[in-house]
Design brief:
alpha+beta; four-stranded antiparallel beta sheet
Length: about 170
């Protein structure tokens, strides 16, 4: 699965690492952190898919994003629940997602109006543990998103980056 992801700054990764001791009871804990912006699907010709994504993002300006707290999904459309995440507030990222959903078909239940920008921390486990984490207050983290990554989900690596002009 290929996607367009938002790389997060070191301050967000540091926050996720500080929360790690409270996440060890979950079935899986994310080691790498980013914000999934739009799934693009599989491709026989990766270069063509990558080119389409880059074209769809041409001229897209840098946007502001802000981690506002910890939250969780009780019933995610895919995978085990709950999903504990850092909530990302960003009208700019939501607008870019909408543009990409127009260029690449939105996945029902996950994208389009259902899209929630977030950085996954952990999934599976007890909902009481997720609620306890969501009740915790954190210092907000604000940053400017100046680039996006074309992500290869099979190898869990960024294949290329797209700069967003300021």
């Amino acid at each position: 699965m290929y996607s367009v992801n938002v790389p997060v700054p070191g301050r967000v990764r540091t926050l996720a690492n500080e929360l790690y001791p409270e996440l060890v009871g979950f079935d899986s804990v994310r080691e790498e952190h980013s914000c999934l912006l739009k799934r693009l699907g599989e491709a026989d010709h990766v270069a063509q898919l990558q080119h389409r994504a880059h074209r769809a993002l041409e001229g897209t300006p840098a946007v502001e994003a802000r981690i506002t707290g910890i939250d969780y999904f009780t019933d995610p459309p895919l995978g085990s629940a709950p999903v504990v995440y850092l909530a990302v507030e960003s009208p700019g990222l939501e607008a870019i997602h909408a543009d990409l959903a127009d260029a690449f078909e939105a996945i029902d239940g996950l994208e389009g109006p259902e899209y929630v920008p977030h950085v996954t921390l952990a999934r599976g486990g007890e909902e009481t543990a997720a609620k306890r984490l969501a009740d915790r207050e954190i210092e907000p983290v604000t940053w400017t998103v100046t680039e996006l990554e074309f992500w290869d989900g099979t190898y869990k690596l960024p294949v290329s980056r797209v700069s967003l002009p300021s």
